[in-house]
């Protein structure tokens, strides 16, 4: 995976685990989503900014590779990198790492920026996001 541009730390809560005591599979997606929104905030873009601009990020594909267990009380860092390709879509690479340095999961995905009125992907998501960011370097620009 690429070098992560941004990271956020969370502690696994007991109610997020399953009957085996492992972090529930759906929570990995929530952690990844949380990190992506925190990345946008760090770059100076709020959900309100996106709505005002008439656009919104969409997830088109997600793959989770589970590597090690996570249990209640574990503290993890969720890294996030956006890889802009120049087309209508971009890749998102995320790594969920325990504090002991062990990678617990890798989350990769394909995203786009949706025009909220036309309900179609914008032709150049990089340009639209860059225009809103106060700290575009955070987003890999």
Largest sheet: 6 strands, antiparallel
> What coarse outline follows from CA principal-axis ratios?
elongated
* Percent in strands: 35-45%
Oligomer: single chain
Describe this structure in a few short sentences.
With 141 residues, the protein is α+β, with helices and mostly antiparallel strands. It has helices at residues 25-42, 47-52, 125-132; strands spanning 6-11, 55-66, 75-84, 89-98, 103-115, 120-121. Helix content is 23%, strand content 38%.
Features:
single chain, 141 residues, alpha+beta, 23% helix, elongated
Q: How would you describe the overall organization of this protein?
A:
- There is one protein chain.
- The chain has 3 helices and 6 strands.
- It has about 140 residues and is α+β, with helices and mostly antiparallel strands.
- Strands 1, 2, 3, 4, 5 and 6 form a 6-stranded antiparallel sheet that branches.
- The chain starts with 5 loop residues before the first strand and ends in a 9-residue tail after the last helix.
Record the SSE blueprint:
Blueprint: E1 6-11, H1 25-42, H2 47-52, E2 55-66, E3 75-84, E4 89-98, E5 103-115, E6 120-121, H3 125-132
Antiparallel strand pairs: 1-3, 2-5, 3-4, 4-5, 5-6
